[in-house]
Prior knowledge:
The complex is a heterodimer of chains A (about 120) and B (about 110). In chain A, about 0% of the residues lie in helices and about 55% in strands. By secondary structure, chain A is mainly beta. Chain B is built from no helices and eleven strands.
Amino acid sequence: xxxxxxxxxxxxxxxxxxxxxxxxxxxxxxxxxxxxxxxxxxxxxxxxxxxxxxxxxxxxxxxxxxxxxxxxxxxxxxxxxxxxxxxxxxxxxxxxxxxxxxxxxxxxxxxxxxxxxxx
Amino acid sequence: xxxxxxxxxxxxxxxxxxxxxxxxxxxxxxxxxxxxxxxxxxxxxxxxxxxxxxxxxxxxxxxxxxxxxxxxxxxxxxxxxxxxxxxxxxxxxxxxxxxxxxxxxxxxxx
Lengths: 119, 110
């Protein structure tokens, strides 16, 4: 049963520290997404990649967040420096364009998330 | 105005009841639609993709009305295990980017 994996599952850090979150997409999926979820904002798309190339990172605070995909099996999301308002659950999801009957839809499968607390 | 809107609920229903959730989307260019289920402190899980005019999977039926720009999810014979938050999602097929609603909370009571 193929799954998206994320590490770490939980992270507590102090304000100002660097945080790196990792994601291994499902083998064969060519699109990787990073989301952030909070009670107030719900699920927000931060950035996504297709075939390892960044397509859209408009949801990400550029000054402190960066997302990369060094190879097809690893995506990273970094926050430097972290702030208390970054506390949230960060999800990675991967997807692949479906053939009909989906007619080009992307079904996304989420990892278990990284629960980040910045004190 | 949010691009995908849902009634947050909560919907409290007895076991065996039929419950329906509605969702509206504002981007007429949206082409693909999904329902995800999220349990407390877990990741969203794909429940159903909604194709053309709708589809059925066991006790779950999803329908799409493009003219009115709304999607619905019907759950028949609800079980205690159906208690969760249901997320309505719209997507542009070209980008694969998903826009999530805030979710509707369902509590099924014995």
